[in-house]
Specification:
Blueprint: H1 15-22, E1 28-34, H2 38-48, H3 51-63, H4 78-84, H5 99-104, H6 108-114, E2 122-127, H7 128-132, H8 139-157, E3 164-166, E4 168-169, H9 175-188, E5 193-196, E6 200-203, H10 205-208, H11 213-218, E7 224-227, H12 238-247, E8 250-253, H13 269-273, H14 276-290, H15 293-296, E9 302-304, H16 310-326, H17 341-351, H18 364-367, H19 370-377, H20 397-402, E10 408-412, E11 435-438, H21 453-462, H22 468-484, H23 500-503
Parallel strand pairs: 1-2, 2-3, 4-5, 5-8, 8-9, 9-10, 10-11
Antiparallel strand pairs: 6-7
Helix pairs in contact: 1-21, 2-3, 2-8, 9-12
């Protein structure tokens, strides 16, 4: 079949292609996973590093280093897992029974031929190793593998650029390495979308210094903290944000939250998996907003992949609700210094004398807020630390919406009903309409059959979960705006480059 087209074997259009043929606009898939050829990728790793780097990369994959969880789970018996609280890692994550789909996401030419069977005209590709590379802990190996992965994918998919474009993996352990790889990927390799980690796991020095390397590695998930770049970061990432904004590059994230405190079952992958992308994305978005990144860089666009839209709607509502009660002015209503102590004592003596057997209350501080209240309310607060929203520079709910909605896009899988929350203007603060965009997740176990993905999403229109306008925004208008708003030439020469002027 290598010299013939696969498409001629298809007798009838797939369910998703039938839906696409009814539409008057293109469809853009913002999250399609591909599988690398190990032997060819290792040639690039050796080119950008050396033979030792290839060996280190193989060892990292074997041990699970650089991924969310360690493969040490398979080396331990149940008693050791319980003793060490070793988190069960992902397993059986790729198509298998559907061999055609596995081959499709592994072979660029076949993917290019079959893409329209999924109902889409154009896809942003998330190669599996590209999502892992920025999380490799070893600094030198991380940079070698990231550079190699980007070069490999740029070369591999360049002949199919009319319908496929891979993301550029960008490490962010420091702003400097992020800047270096961003410029190389965009200006040298010609890649157009950047994939940043949602966080960097950093050791707590005081704890790490008390353990041997082996013991720290075994328990690192409990001896580290999560740096989400915007708030309380170890570094100033503004130079990186500024460069990305200058280049007009869309920043996406696809990082895992498995292994975090509430996703650390030693037995259930499902327990660890449900909601973990949303958890990691929630942490990053909250950090970027409260850290003032969207205020300082209003033209930056962040896409949160495979996490749904419900968490985005919830985060926006939570930010507004917290601001209304705890902005720099409103929070002062809870200052214990504002307490009318004489009135409090009067009321306690009038209505609470039976609590003390008739003894009068004379010390307001002793009764204020009960046991818990004395702990959380009586501590001295510095006036310049009262406003958690200071860096975000917001003065109203409308300001929050203005610094949240344009900057954040939410990737929803084809079968995810939570996307409806993004479009619910009756519930979202200020009648906001969030930027959900279609992220099929083809290539992973979430998608048993890539020919069904667009048809699955269309079922939500048929059920009345959202309108045809919502559907168009999801699969076309929002992804098109995300990629091209700050880079007008993004779709030039692609399968959606020409129709865009008529359909937008």
């Amino acid at each position: 079949m290598s010299n013939a087209s696969y498409s001629h074997l298809q007798k009838t259009p797939s369910p998703s292609r039938k839906i696409r043929e009814q539409l008057d606009h293109p469809v853009i898939d913002t999250d399609l996973h591909t599988v690398e050829n190990p032997a060819v990728l290792e040639q690039y790793i050796e080119k950008h590093g050396n033979a030792k780097a290839v060996d280190q990369f193989r060892e990292a994959l074997k041990k699970g280093r650089g991924s969310a969880l360690s493969n040490r789970w398979y080396e331990e018996d149940q008693s050791q897992r319980v003793h060490n609280r070793t988190v069960r890692p992902p397993w059986w994550a790729l198509p298998a029974e559907n061999t055609l789909d596995l081959a499709t996401v592994s072979l660029p030419q076949l993917l290019h031929e079959r893409l329209q069977e999924s109902g889409s005209d154009y896809a942003i590709l998330y190669p599996n190793v590209a999502t892992l590379a920025p999380h490799i802990g070893h600094p030198e190996l991380r940079r070698i593998v990231t550079r190699a992965v980007n070069h490999y994918n740029a070369d591999l998919f360049r002949p199919y650029a009319d319908r496929l474009t891979p993301v550029a993996a960008i490490p962010l352990h420091t702003p400097e390495e992020g800047l270096e790889e961003l410029d190389y990927a965009i200006n040298t390799l010609g890649l157009k979308v950047a994939l940043i980690p949602g966080h960097v796991t950093r050791p707590i020095p005081d704890l790490a210094g008390k353990l041997s390397d082996s013991d720290f590695s075994k328990h690192s998930h409990r001896l580290t903290w999560i740096d989400t770049f915007g708030l309380d970061s170890a570094y100033d990432y503004d130079p990186f944000w500024a460069r990305a904004q200058q280049l007009g590059v869309s920043l996406t994230t696809h990082s895992a939250g498995m292994g975090w405190t509430a996703r650390s079952s030693i037995s259930s992958y499902t327990y660890n998996h449900i909601g973990h992308f949303a958890d990691a994305s929630h942490a990053l978005a909250k950090s970027l907003f409260l850290g003032g990144v969207t205020h300082r860089f209003p033209d930056l666009r962040f896409g949160f992949l495979e996490a749904g839209a419900a968490w985005g709607a919830s985060l926006l509502a939570d930010l507004v609700g917290h601001w209304e009660k705890r902005n720099g002015v409103a929070v002062q209503k809870y200052d214990p210094a504002r307490l009318d102590q004489s009135l409090l004592l009067k009321l306690y003596n009038q209505y609470g004398s039976e609590l003390t057997g008739g003894t009068a209350h004379t010390d307001a501080a002793a009764i204020t807020g009960g046991a818990l209240g004395r702990v959380v309310s009586q501590q001295t607060q510095h006036k310049d630390e009262l406003d958690d929203f200071a860096a975000a520079h917001v003065g109203s709910p409308a300001d929050i919406v203005a610094k949240f909605v344009p900057n954040f896009y939410f990737g929803a899988e084809a079968d995810d009903p939570s996307v409806a929350y993004a479009f619910n203007q009756q519930v979202n603060p200020e009648g906001a309409r969030l930027n959900a965009f279609w992220a099929s997740d083809s290539g992973h176990w979430d998608v048993p059959d890539l020919t069904q993905v667009l048809a699955e999403t269309w079922q939500q229109v048929e059920r009345g979960a959202f309108s045809k306008k919502d559907f168009k925004d999801l699969v076309f208008s929002n992804p098109h705006r995300f990629y091209s708003e700050k880079n007008p030439g993004f779709f030039n020469g692609t399968a959606v480059g020409q129709p865009i002027k008529k359909a937008a």
